[in-house]
Amino acid sequence: MTISHEALLAEADRGAANAYAPYSKFHVGAALLTKEGEVFRGCNVENVSYGLTNCAERTAIYAAVAAGRREFTAIAIVQGGDAAAAVQPCWPCGACRQVLSEFNIDMDVIFREGAGYKVTKLRELLPHSFDAERLQAK
Ligand code: THU
Predict the structure, then answer these.
(1) Total Cβ atoms within 10 A of residue 68
(2) Which of 26, 88, 99, 100 to mutate to test the pocket of ligand 1 (most atoms within 8 A of CB)?
(3) What pLDDT, in 10s, does the model give residues 44-67?
(4) How far, CA to CA in Å, does 108 sit from each of 8, 25, 51, 92, 116?
(5) CA 104 to centroid of ligand 1, rounded, Å
(6) Predicted TM-score (pTM) of this structure
(7) Which residues are the active-site residues?
(8) Whether the Cβ atoms of residue 72 and residue 38 lie closer than 8 Å to each other
(9) Predicted confidence (pLDDT) at residue 1 exceeds the cutoff of 70
(10) In angstroms, what is the span from residue 109 Cα to ligand 1's centroid?
(11) Whose CA is closest to atom 7 on ligand 1?
């Protein structure tokens, strides 16, 4: 990894600063690291038709794929704003776990925890996932 975990978390903070969350007021930021060391930021983007909301993680991945990147090694995810972010990790929702796994189920997932951070593998957050091998087995 070309930048530190802390630096990637700081990029995720910058993503959270752009969150559009007037309904939930829950600001989320993500920073996705490419194999080449570029960072793509994301934030949640809510909608008055609530179900159309896009999570921060998917915003980041869609921005990166739209820019032509497909190889990702890590994602940092933060809750924006305040001390609440440090209370517990900002786990990605099920939909985002599945979308991230499309590109690399072995990527690192980095969260704030307490005064520090923790790193886990996406594979640990999405065991027994639905993947392309299953399609080929039909
Ligand atoms: N949210 C994310 O951005 N990422 C997640 O993984 C979980 C939830 C957003 C969606 C919504 O705008 C707000 O958090 C509350 O659910």
Answers:
(1) 6
(2) 26
(3) 999 999 999 999 999 999 999 999
(4) 11, 27, 28, 13, 16
(5) 21
(6) 0.94
(7) 57
(8) no
(9) no
(10) 16
(11) 93
* Residue carrying the six token digits 């005064």: 115
Q: Which two tokens stand for residue 4?
A: 């530190």
Q: Whose Cα sits closest to atom 6 in ligand 1?
A: 92
Q: Partners of 47 in the beta sheet?
A: none
In whole angstroms, what is the distance from residue 101 CA to residue 117 CA?
Answer: 22
Q: DSSP labels for 25-91?
A: ---EEEEEEETTS-EEEEE-B--SSGGG-B-HHHHHHHHHHHTT---EEEEEEEE-SSTHHHHS--P
Token pair recorded at residue 135: 């399609």
**Cα 92 to ligand 1 centroid, rounded to whole Å:** 8
Contacts of 120 (CB under 8 A, 6+ apart): 108, 109, 111
Kindly state the percentage of the chain with pLDDT values over 90.
Answer: 80
Amino acid identity of residue 39, one-letter, is V
Residue matched to tokens 């979308």: 99
